[in-house]
Amino acid sequence: MKIAFFSTKSYDKEFFETYQDQQEIHFKYFSASLSIDTVALARGYDGVCVFVNDKLEEETLQQLAAVGVKLIVLRCAGFNNVNIEAAEKLNMKVYRVPAYSPQAVAEHALALILTLNRKTHKAYNRVRDGNFSLERLQGFNLQHKTIGVIGTGKIGASFCKIMQGFTDSILAYDKYENETVKAMGVKYVDLEYLLENSDIISLHCPLTPETKYLIDATSLQNLKNGCMLINTSRGALIHTGDAIEALKEGKLGYLGIDVYEQEEHLFFRDLSENIIQDDQIARLISFPNVLITSHQGFLTKEALQEIAKVTFQNILDFQAGKETENRVVSN
Ligand code: NAD
């Protein structure tokens, strides 16, 4: 089988090369992301291997089907970038990697919290500049603070476990309560209560029509003054314009994001010599209490190894016509 591999980065190749040419699976790496403009690259391939910011809308899928592509393997868990119904109509099968390393993302959420709080990024730069002043580096103890976790699936549960090392006050909100999380002593509450009572809120639910702009002007007004909001899930869970207003007012005390609503135009690229056209990210970057990483929650050795291993297995399962739980189907 020939697989066109889109949005290739050096770290993808490093881990996928182990599987190159094994069991007659051949990868061709393209640095371009997959969209309507690049779909022609997939001509002559049986499948495409894509990541979070490759856009597989109906028209792109139709063109993929027209050039003979039958398989879409996602190197990620989220699949909001693929029109699943359209893929099904075109007889294309979609697979994902549902749990390559929940710990990787949960630990990154903690990294955002600790950096924003203890300002280690600022201290690092200061000291390199010969500035040993402590002015404006004050943080707060996480001990006894209330942490609100929205979405307690694999990553949310892992995050709860980590945060129990800091505090015994963890609130959770999910459509479905996770018994393991409950048994850990985490208290499930309604969304409003969580928003009103948490010192730090971390988002771990998927992006769906229901969760889009879960954090908007109304929910932001419900927050405790100075609350820290962390998003390692998907950008559009937060209404960026409303978050900027809440930061300007001081209602939102800190914002740590690994994902951004318009990230497909920015993330995973070196744009340091370009003029950034996105005024919202430019405004966010200007706040001293905002920390942005460009979707690197997954970027650990363990997670990359698992992504390559499971993706390769997904291709073999597709070939063998096996129905597995990694197959994404519409509801
Ligand atoms: P999961 O499916 O195990 O858990 C998601 C949880 O969200 C479930 O418990 C579900 O019931 C809950 N949920 C769904 N709709 C909800 C709603 N309307 N309100 C409240 N809760 C709701 O998924 P996971 O593996 O924990 O991943 C969570 C998200 O993390 C993914 O959807 C993906 O967007 C994101 N992610 C980010 C990175 C990264 O690198 N930053 C990497 C992997 C995953």
Automatic annotation (TrEMBL):
<dbReference type="InterPro" id="IPR029753">
    <property type="entry name" value="D-isomer_DH_CS"/>
</dbReference>
<keyword id="KW-0560">Oxidoreductase</keyword>
<dbReference type="InterPro" id="IPR029752">
    <property type="entry name" value="D-isomer_DH_CS1"/>
</dbReference>
<comment type="similarity">
    <text>Belongs to the D-isomer specific 2-hydroxyacid dehydrogenase family.</text>
</comment>
<dbReference type="Pfam" id="PF02826">
    <property type="entry name" value="2-Hacid_dh_C"/>
</dbReference>
<dbReference type="Pfam" id="PF00389">
    <property type="entry name" value="2-Hacid_dh"/>
</dbReference>
<dbReference type="InterPro" id="IPR006140">
    <property type="entry name" value="D-isomer_DH_NAD-bd"/>
</dbReference>
<dbReference type="InterPro" id="IPR006139">
    <property type="entry name" value="D-isomer_2_OHA_DH_cat_dom"/>
</dbReference>
<protein>
    <submittedName>
        <fullName>Lactate dehydrogenase</fullName>
    </submittedName>
</protein>
<feature type="domain" description="D-isomer specific 2-hydroxyacid dehydrogenase NAD-binding">
    <location>
        <begin position="110"/>
        <end position="297"/>
    </location>
</feature>
<dbReference type="InterPro" id="IPR058205">
    <property type="entry name" value="D-LDH-like"/>
</dbReference>
<keyword id="KW-0520">NAD</keyword>
<feature type="domain" description="D-isomer specific 2-hydroxyacid dehydrogenase catalytic">
    <location>
        <begin position="4"/>
        <end position="328"/>
    </location>
</feature>
<dbReference type="InterPro" id="IPR036291">
    <property type="entry name" value="NAD(P)-bd_dom_sf"/>
</dbReference>
